[in-house]
Amino acid sequence: MKATIRPRLDLQWLYQVMAYVLLDIHAALRIERVGFSMVRQRVFVTWDVDHLIQGITGSSTCTRERLRSTLLSAIWASHTRSDQRRPTASRDTCLTSP
């Protein structure tokens, strides 16, 4: 969960909490829901992780494991690339290339 005093949801925050989920490689934290709390507005929003992944990717076949694999591959590629261009997802992943 991420807390904020600003009355808006920021896409970068969504990416941040999803990164927490995807980087929990061995499911040690057992994250099943993510959410935002906007205390001053008395708003608390949560989503089931698997449904959120399908909503973000637009694919009912995209799983947490596939998305995690895509993220880890991109991290590894950016770490090992000699040029520092931003890596893109390959066509066999559940993300589309920019």
Based on the model shown, name its key terms:
98 residues, alpha+beta, three-stranded mixed β-sheet, 3 helices
Total helical elements: 3
Give the class from helix and strand content and strand pairing: alpha+beta
What about the largest sheet?
Answer: 3 strands, mixed
Spatial arrangement of strands, main beta sheet: 1-2-3
Unreliable stretches: none
One letter per element, helices H and strands E, the order comes to EHEEHH
Shape: globular
Number of strands: 3
What share of residues are in beta strands? 15-25%
Mean model confidence by pLDDT = 81
Radius of gyration, taken over Cα atoms and rounded to an integer in Å: 15 Å
Q: In whole angstroms, how far apart are the ends?
A: 28 Å
Fraction of helical residues: 25-40%
Describe the structure.
The chain is α+β, with helices and mostly antiparallel strands and 98 residues long. A 3-stranded mixed beta sheet has the order 1-2-3. It has a domain at 2-61. The longest helix is centred in the last third of the chain and has 17 residues, at 64-80. The chain has helices at residues 11-23, 49-57, 64-80; strands spanning 2-4, 33-38, 43-48. It is globular, with a radius of gyration of 15 Å.
Question: What's the short version?
Answer:
Helix content is 40%, strand content 15%. With 98 residues, the protein is an alpha+beta fold.
Helix/strand layout:
Layout: E1 2-4, H1 11-23, E2 33-38, E3 43-48, H2 49-57, H3 64-80
Parallel strand pairs: 1-2
Antiparallel strand pairs: 2-3
